[in-house]
Amino acid sequence: MNDRAERLLSITPCAYPLLSDTVHCGIDDADLRQTVRVCDPDKAISMSEIEVIKNKLDTIYKRKNKYCVCRPDQLKPCWFRFGFAFLRRMFPVETGVSNLYSREFCPANETLLSFKKSYALVHSTRETIINYGKNFARLLRERWLMGECDEDILFLILLKRPNQLVRKNALSYLPTGIMSQAPYIFASYGSLVQEKIDTFSSLINEFPINKKRLDPLQKIVEAENVNLENGYSLKVVTENLLEQFEATLSQTDEKYPSPNSRSHIPDWAMVVFIMCALLCLLMTIGLCLMRTSVRRGSPRSKPMDTTRRWKAGFVGGMWYDVCKNKIISL
């Protein structure tokens, strides 16, 4: 991958390769591409680290072989789908990501390269970088289309975390250079996962009135980011991450089982459609009743003689009757 493309994908997820892009996704092993949803365009991680992810996912899917999230006839493995996107660095630049961007609209504008990335990074706060990374991961997940009913989970792993994401109370015996080089993980999950986690959180939360309820999955990610900062290897962290996600999602399945089938049509659209159908039915019944009442209220006149009815449509009909009477009298 050329230098310009590499720098652009570090700014915006719109330039990040899709899973189907086998040339730029950085995974040369064809078997790994078929079994693991991983992309490493910078080729910054080793194959052994990808093998750890593959083996862990194989173990999880063997345990969850009988559980299908979306529908029973789904192609197995049909539990929650995980994806991993690796990036050497991330450079937050204005308009690089946005809440308005989506899978349908995600511009990869090369004019972003004209911004001084180092200047943008230095003047960014911890909150802005976290929001940038979350939007980066969300757009990647939406573009990858891993799930069938929004049951997908994507981990965006920065191999070199920005200084703003280094905790102030980091272990003092670790040099600053090592801390700044530690990876950092962002997670994004589909609406089905979010619904299950929100329901699960409301059941276990002691203070449901509090609007800032802690997301159990996000707590796992934050804890593993602390472990990375404390010197844990990426292999150990990814294994722990998948294990804890499996345990939490299994608990949500027990408390909030997934439906056998899930439609992409939102609930509000179904409600509007049903209401419109009911209104049309009521209007049809009302019209039928009105026509029936009108027919009953109108008087029925006696039928007119066929000859007289035919003659009434002509101007000379009554003169014909006069002439006929005169002839008879003669």
From TrEMBL:
Q: Name one GO cellular component term.
A: membrane
Membrane recorded as keyword:
yes
* Segments passing through the bilayer: 268-290
Domain of life assignment:
Eukaryota
| Keyword line | Membrane, Transmembrane, Transmembrane helix
Q: What is this protein called?
A: Uncharacterized protein
